Inverse folding.
């Protein structure tokens, strides 16, 4: 689908709510809306960045691996895990909410808490991270301001937008809100890497972790937000500083380490590293669409491996190759 000319985009922005019937997800809010081919960008007290610049780049990476998204969006066949549609008429667009006020973000979270039955810990987590994805996979909310302040602040949430939006679109294609952490985080990291050659969304504080650990980390065997991850991961793998498939598949945020984060990224890269593997990844997502839980055994079966060791052999070989870059 071709991009709309700037003049038509302006007209579409003015008429979008009436003509395109994108769902409104929050009561008593008015938004400045900007449409792209596959996204409805809604802003309040701020501009449409970073979504304006990167939304369609995220789409390009997602649809390359999951071509079924094209029909989900263009023919309004997207469905939530509960079976509801995402728009009244075609095309469906993924919505991004960009908020420049802590008070507005608080009001949004209150509505989301009531709708989704969140507890106080879930709400607090969203306040700390300043973003969250819709449990029904229809939108992403980002707050550029300090949630504790009424106004002010233009925090750069570019990495968070790219990583989180990619993960939410993946879950949307899988018709689920329950894909394993290694799969959603890995896909988010992979799309970050494809766009920026960096992985900057860290679920833990890497710097503090390294400072607090007693181990003497070898030169080049640490990960950070301002370096290309394949380089140090390749060195780790060659030095047998490795995470097993079982460890990666069982990874949880509360016990996560930088190395596990890196190997989650590396596994995602391996799983879509060539056309043959991309075809298998689509089957993996299809298993989720059919209601299956994506476990380690399902991963092994989908990719044709008898056991962990067989997959690990190919995975580590890939990490040490020139294809991992």
């Amino acid at each position: 689908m071709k991009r709309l000319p700037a003049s038509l985009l302006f007209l579409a922005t003015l008429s979008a709510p009436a003509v395109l019937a994108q769902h409104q997800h929050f009561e008593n809010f008015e938004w400045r809306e900007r449409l792209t081919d596959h996204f409805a960008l809604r802003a309040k007290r701020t501009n449409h960045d970073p979504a304006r610049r990167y939304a369609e780049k995220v789409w390009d990476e997602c649809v390359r691996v999951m071509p079924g998204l094209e029909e989900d969006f263009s023919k309004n066949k997207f469905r939530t895990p509960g079976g509801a549609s995402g728009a009244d008429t075609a095309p469906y667009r993924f919505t991004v909410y960009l908020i420049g006020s802590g008070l507005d973000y608080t009001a949004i979270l209150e509505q989301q808490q009531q709708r989704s039955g969140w507890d106080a810990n879930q709400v607090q987590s969203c306040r700390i991270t300043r973003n969250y994805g819709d449990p029904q996979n229809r939108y992403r909310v980002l707050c550029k301001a300090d949630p504790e302040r009424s106004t002010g602040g233009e925090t750069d949430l570019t990495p968070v937008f790219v990583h989180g939006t990619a993960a939410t679109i993946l879950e949307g294609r899988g018709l689920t809100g329950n894909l394993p952490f290694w799969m959603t985080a890995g896909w988010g990291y992979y799309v970050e890497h494809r766009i920026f050659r960096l992985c900057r969304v860290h679920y833990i504080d890497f710097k503090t972790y390294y400072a607090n650990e007693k181990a003497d980390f070898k030169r080049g065997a640490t990960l950070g937000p301002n370096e290309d991850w394949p380089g140090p991961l390749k060195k780790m793998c060659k030095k047998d500083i490795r995470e097993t498939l079982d460890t990666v598949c069982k990874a949880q945020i509360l016990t996560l380490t930088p190395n596990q984060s890196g190997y989650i990224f590396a596994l995602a890269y391996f799983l879509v590293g060539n056309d043959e593997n991309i075809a298998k990844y689509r089957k993996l997502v299809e298993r989720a669409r059919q209601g299956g839980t994506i476990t380690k055994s399902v991963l092994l079966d989908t990719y044709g491996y008898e056991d962990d060791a067989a997959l690990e052999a190919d995975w580590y070989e890939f990490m040490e190759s020139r294809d991992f870059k």
Remarks:
- Residues 6-177 form one domain.
- Residues 1-20 have pLDDT under 50 and may be disordered.
- The radius of gyration is 20 Å.
